[in-house]
Amino acid sequence: MHSDRRSSRHQLSHDRILDAAARSVRRHGYAGVGVADVMKEAGLTHGGFYAHFKSRDALLAAAVGHAGAESGKALSQRMAALREGGASPVAALVEAYFAPLHVQAIETGCPVAALGAEMPRQADEVRMVSCQSVSALVELARSALPPDSPKERAFALASSLVGAVQLARALGEPGHDMLQATGAALIAQYDPTS
After folding, report:
1. Which residue among 5, 120, 124, 141 sits deepest, i.e. has the most Cβ atoms within 10 Å of its Cβ?
2. Are 134 and 112 contacting, i.e. CB atoms less than 8 angstroms apart?
3. How many C-beta neighbours within 10 Å does residue 143 have?
4. pLDDT tens by residue, 98-137
5. Is the alpha carbon torsion for 145, 147, 149, 150 positive or negative?
6. How do residues 135-160 score in pLDDT, each as one tens digit?
7. pTM for this prediction
């Protein structure tokens, strides 16, 4: 029983570290993630880091995986709510991905949009998990398209979503108009019901 409590506390600490690291990597990029800062944000001491991760790269890989899972779940929930309101699958994906909350909240949004340009320069362990986040986003796009759609359409839709969010973030307030125009164009192009 004593071992179960220790294991439970260890898991809670691990989860807090992952949450803090996932926010940090999206907020600051891979290079901006410091072990000491993550541990402090998680409310833990720096010395406890190696009880959870063998290296900073292991932390980054786990953080990106965690960020991708969180983002995917949040997007799927927003899409489901939009679908219940009558939106088509493509419109639900576009509206959920371009939602102001998603675009403005870099530290809780899609890690692909936050980190895409940095992914190729990471250690293999980190790059591999980052690529899985890209694949998950492409799969989400594929699931929104009609079943007989060629896989290249999912690539194009996912790429358009990420690129538009990155540009909107770069532009600030004027990016809102760009997202509206891009969203309308994507729905017109990829939604067979429009």
Report:
1. 141
2. yes
3. 13
4. 999 899 989 899 999 999 999 999 999 999 999 999 999 9
5. positive
6. 999 999 999 999 999 999 999 999 99
7. 0.89
Instruction: Name residues whose C-beta falls within 8 Å of residue 67's C-beta, 6 or more positions apart in sequence.
Output: 22, 25, 26, 111, 114, 133
Please give the Cα distance from 35 to 57 (Å, whole number): 10
Rounded Cα distance, 86 and 6, in Å = 48
Residue 85, in any domain of the structure: yes
pLDDT band at 7 (very low <50, low <70, confident <90, very high): confident
Domain boundaries, position 117: 54-190
Q: State the DSSP code for 119.
A: G
pLDDT digits (tens, 9 = 90+) for 48-60: 888 899 999 999 9
Judge whether 78 and 96 are in contact, CB under 8 Å: yes
CA proximity to 117, closest of 105, 106, 130, 129: 130
CATH number for the domain spanning 63: value is 1.10.357.10
Q: What angle do CA 65, 66, 68 make, to 5 degrees?
A: 65
In a domain, 137, yes or no: yes
Which helix (H) or strand (E) element contains residue 24? helix 2-28
Take residue 19 and report the two structure tokens written for it.
Answer: 């949450």
Domain count, the chain: 1
